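Quick question, first post here. What does this chain look like in 3D?
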Amino acid sequence: MGVLVRQRSGKTGWWVIIVQQGRRKYKRFNERQAARDFAKDAETALAGSLFHLAPTGQTLTDYFEQWIDQHVRPFRKPSTLVSYLLGWEKYLKPALGDLPLASVTRSNVRDLVSTMMKQGLARNTARAMIAPLSAMFTRAIDDGLVKENPTLRVLPKQRGQEQSQKAHPLTREQSTRLLATCLTLFPQWHPLLLVFSRSGLRVGEALALQWGDVDFQGRYLYIRRQWHKSRIVELKGGRQGKVDMSPQLAQTLYHVKSYSMKDTDLLFPNEVGKPINPSNFRNRVWLPLLKAAELPAIRMHDLRHTFATHLLEEGADLLYVQRQLRHHSVEITQRFYGHVQTGYRRDVDKLDDRKEPTLTTQ
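> Answer (accepted):
Ran it through. Tokens below.
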């Protein structure tokens, strides 16, 4: 047992080598003094048995219970703890709990994910169920107990495929019918649906709009926050932005402002001036509205796809649509909506000089 500071052949920097129970743990530093300082602290920790390697035969269950008690219960929200324990008890423990911690492989986790999805779990639900396993192995790597996280890349993202499968934009006629029906049955929510249909905002962004975010003169909506997990949170850095408002939307919101509640800054508060709960709105307004308008049971988010689709059908430039949707790049917009573009194949007609002679056939 001991702690050494060495340079290693073929490697840069200074290395602290912790030797315990015949096994070695390495940590690299750029500076020799930093390595020496860490080595001194490590020697003190070893004397107090604070550094330890995985005991022989430690199972996934052994380490998971330790990790939950030391790193989740004291620091994470109760809802996170409940979510982790649900995934553990229902899926992870029965399939993997008896395996030695260091022997869990990516193949084991991939097989478990495949089983969950065959049982009918959606991709995102399966991802949520293995989230505690991923977090636990990240800690195990930091503790020097395993070398890699076996949950990585077991459920690769397929953003373009998922988006195209789930997107159900309305036609122009269906969109008009939806707004007209809303104006008749739920007139107080017509402006909110118009925001979705004329600006392409996400549901959480629209519900978090405040009057200070509306620029009537420039016809902009500034996106600064969103509704997330029962509260409104500020968006960070590049996620903020602004989008254009159509004249109809600007006029409608200007009218709404004249009679809006005075004790809240929200554009669309509930009856007590608090943010609308999306689930409540979906059940009490959105689904009954779709039924009354004789439309398929699409998601509210599909109005964002409807917005983008209609813009492109009207000949809007893909870059403009990307800016309105605030995608990170135009390539993402192209992947989702490139198939919608119409008319661009005939744009070559504009290159012809009408005065040039044209070959005609008899």
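Residues 243 and 323 are 8 Å apart (CA to CA).
The chain has 14 helices and eight strands.
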